[in-house]
Design brief:
The chain is of the alpha+beta class and 382 residues long. The chain folds into three domains: 7-119, Butyryl-Coa Dehydrogenase, subunit A, domain 1, CATH 1.10.540.10; 122-231, Butyryl-CoA Dehydrogenase, subunit A, domain 2 (Beta Barrel), CATH 2.40.110.10; 235-381, Butyryl-CoA Dehydrogenase, subunit A, domain 3, CATH 1.20.140.10. Helix content is 51%, strand content 14%. It has eleven helices and ten strands. The strands form two sheets. Strands 1, 2, 3, 4, 5, 6, 7 and 8 form an eight-stranded mixed β-sheet that branches. The chain has a two-stranded antiparallel ribbon with strand order 9-10. The radius of gyration is 21 Å and the shape is globular. It binds flavin-adenine dinucleotide. Residues 88, 122-125, 130-131, 155-157, 203, 206, 211, 360, 363-367, 369-370 line the site of flavin-adenine dinucleotide.
Amino acid sequence: MRPEAGQTERELAGAVRDWSAELAPRIADAERQGALPADVIHDLGELGVLGMGIPESDGGLGASTVVFALVLEELAAAWPSLAVGVSVNSGIVAGSIVRHGTREQRARLLPRLMDGSGLGAFALTEATSGSDAASLRATAHRDGDGWVLNGRKQFITNAKYAPFVITFARVGAAEEQRPHAGVTAFIVPTDAPGVSLGPSEQKMGLRASDTSALVLEDAQVGADAVLGEIGRGFGIALAGLDGGRIGIAAQSIGIARAVIERAIAYARERRQFGTPIVEFEAIRFSLARARTDLDAARMLALRAAWLRDRGCPFTREASMAKLFASETAQRVTYQALQVFGGYGYMREYEVERYARDARATTLYEGTSEVQRMVIARSLVAA
Ligand SMILES: Cc1cc2nc3c(=O)[nH]c(=O)nc-3n(C[C@H](O)[C@H](O)[C@H](O)COP(=O)(O)OP(=O)(O)OC[C@H]3O[C@@H](n4cnc5c(N)ncnc54)[C@H](O)[C@@H]3O)c2cc1C
C-alpha cells in the first residue's frame, strides 16, 4: 500500500518499471565495464524521466516529489547504478537550478539535464572536507567579467557524463566563526578551460556509476556561472541535499525490494531436508522482518516527499527517510544473501551485487552519522 501515491503517480512508476525490466540482460556487462550505456541515458531522456521534477514551464514533466521517489525506487530495483545517476541529475542538480537559477540559466541549462545527452553532477566533497563540507578549500576569484576557480573536488557522481557540474568554491577568505562564509555555487562546464577529470574511482559497488574527481586549475567560467548569490552557496548545497536524500532513500528502498523479491522466489524453490527452505521459520521470520522494514522505509520516504510537495519543512523527515532506508537496504541485502546460502556469495547471483551497491547508501549525501546529527539538531532546537 502506498497511501501518499495516487493513481497517476503509480501509473508513471509502473511505466518505468516495465521499461527498466528490459535492461536486465545488459546490467552485468555494463557493471564489468564500469559505465552506463549512452543509449540508456538517451532513452531516459526520451521517456521524460530525466526532467521529471522540472516544471512544465521549463520543459519538464512537472511531476511531484512523490513520483520522483516512486520512479527512483523502480530504477533502483532494476539497476542501482542507474538510479543514483538519475537521482543526482534529476534531483539535486536539476532541483538546485530550478530553485536558484535565473530565467536565462534555467533556459540554458535545464534542457541539457533532460535531453539524454548526459547526466549533471554536483561537486561539494573534497579530500579534506566530507561531512564537514563547509570547510571546503576550493577558491573562486573574479577575473574581469568572469571567475577563476582552483581546487579538486572528490568522488563526483556522473562527472564523466556531465555537461556541467554545480561546483562549490569559496569567494574571499574563510572565517573561523562562519565556516560557510563565501561559499558560492558555480555552474562549471566540463569543457571549460582549466577543467579536467581524474580517473574513475574503482569502487566496491555501483560500478557502472561514474565517480571521478573534478580538477580545477585556473578554471575559467563566465559571470553567468554563479548560481544564486555570491556567498550563499552553502544554503544551496544544504537545500539540494534535503531533496537529494529523498532520492537516496528511494534508491535504498528499490534495492531492498529487489532482493526481498529474489529471496522469496529462491526460498520457494530451494529444498533442503526434504522441504523448500521457505517452510523454515528462521527463513520466514527473516523475510517478515525485511519486508516490514522495507514498508516502513517507504512510508518515511513518501512522507518526506509529500511534505516537500506541499511546501512544508521536510529536512528532518528527509534525513529520517535516508537514515532508515539506507540502513534497511544494508541489513536486508545481507539477510537476502543469507537466504541464498553459499549461492548468494557468488557473482552469478544478483544479491551479491545489490549488497555491494547498498553499502554506498549510508555514505553519500550525508553519512548515517550526519543524518542523526540533522535529526537530533531539529529535535533539540524545537
Ligand atoms: C559512491 C560515492 C558517490 C559520491 N558522490 C558524490 C557527489 O556526487 N558529490 C559530492 O560532493 N560528494 C560525493 N560523494 C562523497 C560523499 O558525500 C562523502 O564521502 C560523504 O559526505 C562522507 O565524507 P567523507 O567520505 O569525507 O567521510 P568523513 O566526513 O571523513 O567521515 C568519516 C567518518 O566519520 C564520521 N563523522 C564525521 N563527522 C562526524 C561527526 N561530527 N560526528 C560523528 N561522526 C562523524 C562519518 O559519519 C564517517 O563515518 C560520494 C561518495 C561515494 C562513496
